[in-house]
Design the sequence.
């Protein structure tokens, strides 16, 4: 197995903004909640975290804002998310561009936290509050793995694995958490929604292949329409109808020019 190591590009654009926002909000809430008794910090936290009932009753901003919040009691929650975004989301933005990356993140947020909110109606899957960007991190990890399947990733900087094997381990880990009913801060379902979004929106997905095929067919039909008049003009020049010139005055009848 030939190993190919690629140095990840520096975060830029939406990935840099996202990582900076996650870090700044963690510092803000950790300092406010842990070191002050001001009630506004907890009130703001409660207004931004994900709550299934609130989302299903129209507070849709929680689908996005919940992704930006991380456990104020420990820095590891935010650091792990930022590290995954650094290694897997930054290369995607360098390859896709900022516009597509924004759409990718929004779709991952809606699918991941949307499924978490819907699953909240089931008591066995309900999580009172959920927050964290693991749905985004999982989406970026899966998308990167499918588009770089022939590279090698070293888990813990030691164990070499193929990217698709890494995805399999990620799925097994969250399945184990689901079986044990040990929900992470993001909930039991949102991480699966993020992985689903990453697979559906990467270049190797059947959904994107179908969309590109439809787009290619549309362009092909437009090209055929542009070519048709030129072909008709070509046939007219080779064997077109007779041209007639009608003169005025006393000349009798039209004359035919072949």
Sequence:
């Amino acid at each position: 197995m030939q190993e190919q190591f690629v140095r990840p590009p520096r975060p830029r654009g939406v990935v840099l903004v996202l990582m900076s926002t996650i870090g700044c909000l963690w510092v803000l809430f950790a300092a406010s909640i842990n070191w002050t008794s001001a009630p506004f910090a907890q009130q703001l936290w409660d207004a931004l975290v994900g709550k299934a009932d609130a989302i299903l009753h129209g507070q849709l901003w929680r689908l996005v804002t919940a992704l930006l919040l991380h456990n104020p009691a420990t820095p590891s929650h935010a650091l792990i998310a930022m590290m995954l975004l650094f290694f897997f989301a930054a290369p995607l933005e360098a390859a896709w561009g900022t516009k597509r990356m924004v759409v990718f993140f929004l779709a991952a947020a809606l699918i991941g936290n949307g499924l978490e909110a819907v699953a909240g109606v089931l008591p066995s899957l309900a999580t009172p509050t959920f927050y964290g960007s693991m749905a985004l991190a999982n989406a970026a990890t899966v998308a990167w793995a499918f588009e770089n399947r022939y590279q090698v990733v070293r888990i813990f900087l030691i164990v070499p694995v193929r990217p698709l094997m890494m995805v399999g381990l990620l799925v097994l880990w969250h399945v184990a958490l689901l079986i044990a009913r040990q929900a992470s801060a993001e909930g039991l379902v949102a991480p699966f929604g993020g992985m689903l979004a990453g697979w559906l929106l990467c270049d190797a997905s059947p959904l994107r292949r179908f969309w590109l095929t439809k787009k290619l067919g549309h362009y092909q039909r437009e090209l055929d329409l542009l070519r048709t008049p030129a072909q008709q003009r070509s046939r007219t020049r080779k064997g077109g109808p007779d041209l007639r010139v009608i003169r005025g005055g006393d000349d009798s009848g039209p004359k035919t020019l072949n």
